[in-house]
Amino acid sequence: MIAKILLSVSLGVGGFLPPSSLSKHDIPEPVDIAASALCPQWWQTAVDAGWRPSLLPTLDYLMWRESRCNAGTLNADDPNGGSRGLVQINGFWTPWLASRGIVKRSEGLFGPYRNLRAALAIYNYADARYDNGFGPWGL
Asked: Domain 36-137 falls in which CATH fold?
């Protein structure tokens, strides 16, 4: 309530809005895309989703191998309801991802950002548990 009053008074007397609380650390840096990238259109999305730039070449290969860079890819022949999206996340992971607030249903994995966030969560799990983040994809 006090903030509303201060804002109204400030604007009413010709004041200005305080600067945004965003810092330069809140805005992702543009990523340098390798000339050899197979899925360059998804590199910035991957970084925005939290992937470290050093992992992008392997992630790029993974996206190409699993979906040919097509976010709408569905492999219905896979078990557990199939695999979806850029990195073909299997339905097996859906309850685990839902418990972390990443997706509610498997269909959410068709969104590129959400698919890459889910892939990062799986990568981090496998890296911590097995010391091989890309292990769930056989890399």
From this structure: Lysozyme (1.10.530)
Ranges of beta strands (E only) in the chain are 74-75, 83-84, 89-90
Q: Is 53 exposed, middle or buried (0-12, 13-18, 19+ CB in 10 A)?
A: middle
Q: What predicted TM-score, i.e. pTM, was given to this entire model?
A: 0.79
Q: Which amino acid is at 61?
A: Y
pLDDT tens sequence across 42-82: 999 999 999 999 999 999 999 999 999 999 999 999 999 99
Give residue limits of the domains in the chain. 36-137
Integer Cα distance of 38 and 36 in angstroms: 6
CA distance 131 to 136: 11
**Distance of alpha carbon 32 from alpha carbon 43, whole angstroms:** 9
DSSP state of 137: G
d(CA 126, CA 131): 7
Tokens of 19: 């600067």
DSSP state of 29: P
**Token pair for residue 114?**
């959400």
Structure tokens at 37: 């990238």
